[in-house]
Amino acid sequence: MKPAPFEYHRPRSVADAVATLGDYPGTARVLAGGQSLVPMLNMRLWRPDAIVDINEIDELDDIVADGDRVTIGSLVRYSTVERSSLLARRLPLLPRIVRHIGDRQVRNRGTVGGALVHADPTGELPLACLTLDAVVVAAGPEGVRRIPVDELYEGSYATAVDPRELVVAVEFPPPAEAVAFRELCRKHNDFAVVSVAAAGSRDDGGRWRDVRIALGGVADTPVLATASADRLEGTELRDADVAAASDAALEVADPPSDIRASAEYRRHLLPVYVRRVLTELRESHARQAWGEGTP
After folding, report:
1. Where a domain ends, among 117, 147, 172?
2. pTM for the complete prediction?
3. 3-state SS class at 211
4. What is the mean pLDDT of the chain?
5. Residue 9 forms part of a structural domain
């Protein structure tokens, strides 16, 4: 099929893009990488009055370090994240996790902002940003506002971003010392059945602090396993601590049944993958301490 008719706009600034979105309140769609938008248009699942193509807005295509914080523009491609030496040093979870997204063609076009706004509950980028306590920056007719990623999602494929707003960047706080990630797919780079990411830091006494554990594919949005993380605060991440935290992750799980897996199977997998990720987190920190680098 082909898309239903729509108006096409190609603004060259954020202000022009926001103004154009305001001309079509709730009936325009933003085109960035198009990896999700174009199939939805072709199947006529979405029939917007207008498409606002933001690919000419150069200010949205930067990765900037400011002190110990990093800001990634919404137009930055997955492939740019994958190759960025800055992100490899500062936020290594991001280059690692995008390698699990689609294939090379998808990563050459897909964007950070597009992934966050699309709000796929199995998406790797939303999972990583939730793990890293990121903040989404959105520009709208009433100015700029910042939305923590843990407040961004309202449901499957639904966000708190107003239709008149344009996501312009994602801001990351000072990074954790260690990160880990695992996911299960039916085939290489398919949609995840279950995914888990974790981040945390260890003090001089060997005790872990500020642990964050994010889960994908087990609810209608990516979710934080807060109870699991709380069980690890101040521990040495011993096997008993890891086991208790893995079981606690089920408290926030309400997985769907679909063509990829049943809800029962996802609930079975979840503590297994949380345990693997937490074990990797502990071991990755040990490798860094011995000077072997982040996996």
Report:
1. 172
2. 0.93
3. strand
4. 94
5. no
